[in-house]
Amino acid sequence: MEVFECVSTLSTIRSYKEKKVPDEIVMKVMEAGRLAPSAHNDQPWEFIILRDKTKLKQMDQYCSSGTFIVQVDFAVVVLSDPRSKWHEIDTTRAIQNMVLSAWSYKLGSCWIGRIDKEGLSQFLKIPKEWNILTVLPFGYFNESMISGTKFRKPPKDVFHLDEYGKNIDE
Ligand SMILES: Cc1cc2nc3c(=O)[nH]c(=O)nc-3n(C[C@H](O)[C@H](O)[C@H](O)COP(=O)(O)O)c2cc1C
Questions:
Q1: SS3 for 148?
Q2: C-alpha of residue 53 to centroid of ligand 1, in Å
Q3: Is pLDDT at 148 greater than 90 in this prediction?
Q4: Which CATH number fits the domain 3-143, given the four candidates 3.50.50.60, 3.40.50.1820, 3.40.109.10, 3.30.470.30?
Q5: Rounded distance, CA 151 to CA 110, Å?
Q6: What is the pLDDT of residue 139?
Q7: Chain-wide mean pLDDT for the chain?
Q8: Closest to 137 measured CA to CA, from 69, 70, 67
Q9: Burial of 163 (0-12, 13-18, 19+ CB in 10 A)
Q10: Residue 49 forms beta bridges with which residues?
């Protein structure tokens, strides 16, 4: 899929098919994250690839705003390192690489924001020095469920030409 098509069609997916994701595709998605750029090339991230079905089925306890995570074949717990100044920005770039690459393989995802970080740290034995930035479920989905409409502010509200306040159409 061409990059702009990927960016412009990307949608958050909250319902997934019960279908296995091949290992090669899982690793492509992970590579897309690992290859992201970062300030000073700090690479302030690590990723827990969750494939164990028993663990995945329990993840809803820790992801209250993304309980649909129990439906997927794989998920990624994204860790960022607070010792690096730009850890959240850098790791978010890795996340966007992963989500867009997954989309190009017809895999949907969703940034899960509300996480019981303490509980999840215990569950997955995550050392205290790491920040859990998000958990990303990845899975195939029913394409007919995508509306195709992106609810975004119109260009005139977010673009300025040459100086603040000058409309691009003037
Ligand atoms: C930082 C961040 C946190 C988010 N947290 C959640 C969440 O906890 N649960 C959820 O269902 N969606 C979550 N989302 C998805 C957004 O609601 C979604 O991207 C937005 O509504 C736009 O929809 P679209 O991605 O389909 O265009 C989050 C997105 C971001 C970037």
A1: coil
A2: 24
A3: no
A4: 3.40.109.10
A5: 16
A6: 98
A7: 96
A8: 69
A9: exposed
A10: 76
CB 150 near ligand 1, within 6 Å: yes
Query: Is the pLDDT score of 47 beyond 90?
Result: yes
| Strand pairing class (131-139; 45-50) | unpaired
Please answer whether residues 30 and 98 qualify as being in contact, where contact means their C-beta atoms are separated by less than 8 angstroms.
yes
Rounded CA-CA distance 146/9 in Å is 9
Partners of residue 46 on adjacent β-strands: 79
Edge-to-edge order in the sheet of strand 45-50: 45-50, 74-80, 131-139, 108-109
Q: Give residue for tokens 């899960």.
A: 112
- Distance (Å) from CA 29 to ligand 1 centroid: 19
Distance between CA atoms of residues 111 and 101, nearest Å: 15
Ligand 1 atom having least distance to the Cα of 150: 27
**Cβ(42)–Cβ(74) below 8 Å:** no
Is the beta carbon of 114 within 6 A of some atom in ligand 1?
yes
Hey, where are the domains in the chain? 3-143
Burial of 94 (0-12, 13-18, 19+ CB in 10 A): buried
Q: Tell me what pLDDT residue 79 has.
A: 98
Cβ contact 130:79 at 8 Å:
yes
Span 81-92, mean pLDDT?
98
